[in-house]
Amino acid sequence: SKHVIKNIPWTTAKNFTVERGQQQIEELISTWDIHESWRHHSEFLEEEELKDSKRYHYRACWALPTRRKPIPQATASVYFVIVISKFKPDTAPVEVFYRLESSRLIRRPEQCQFREKWLQDITENKILCAERL
User: Fold this and answer.
1) pTM of the prediction?
2) What Gene Ontology cellular-component terms does the record carry (predicted)?
């Protein structure tokens, strides 16, 4: 069966604010098929001015607390960039990209369904590394 890639209608450049960007990232995250035991918080990191665009950087930090270990041993971050083109009309939707902390691969929400396994891999690798030290 083909996976349906869930995405959200992104705000237009003219309606964009830093807060709206964070709300929309939360909205996107809510479409991801992730077990409810995972916890996350998102935050705005910085605004970057480029020749052709303005980029807004955010991070969602994920952890899996349990009753036995309420303070998780490791976290996994997902970095988001919301891009506002200086060449497109301000009625065009913003562009959104994300990448995992352990990867240089940049993904687009409309092209790639997020997978819980990615978060598991990052946190498990961190825990294994810490145990080796």
Assistant:
1) 0.93
2) cAMP-dependent protein kinase complex
